[in-house]
Amino acid sequence: MFSEKIHKEVDSAIKRVWLEDIKKDYLQHSLLKEDSLKNAFYYHLRRRLGDHYLLDNHLRIYTEFYYMGLRADLVVVKLNENPGQNGHLKNDVAEIIAAIEMKYKYDLSDKPFLSDIEKVRKSIEEYKINALYYLAFIHEVEYEANSTLSWIDIEKSPWAKGRVVELNGYFVTEKQEPVWEVVSYNGLNEDIFREGNYSR
């Protein structure tokens, strides 16, 4: 099992990518659909963590990752000490540190988002994959003012406690710019990302 330090560092990088880099890309019209969101997330996360950090800690970032029932848009994994010796590279994954599901929709339907939430729930409850999970959702519809968007009712979803973070991008009635926020249930980096201490 990886140290809490690594989990905190990866978590911080993911949250900063969302609040700073992805928001900037969105405002500069650099994100067209989900694939460009995925590509941008990979680029920014790798840049923020740095190749030396990734290599020194045997960490890698992969997209479209399938493993033991888990299907994730992007993951951060720890490889074993000697990768490349066990046939396919997926056999060298020692641990999944973080899994990110992404959706980018201009649609009133919330079904695609709920489907990703169910995938994460299954990964935690049924497949027993111990990792940090992130729901990176851009929903280009307007929500009511003075409300924080949250896809998960944490009281009804105990599986999310200590594990899941919502990365939300959406519009609020009568606001020009989209809202970009982190709704965290994983308890990591709360001093940095608590509302008021860190907002974009």
TrEMBL record:
Domain of life: Bacteria
Name of this chain's protein: Uncharacterized protein
Organism: Paranoxybacillus vitaminiphilus
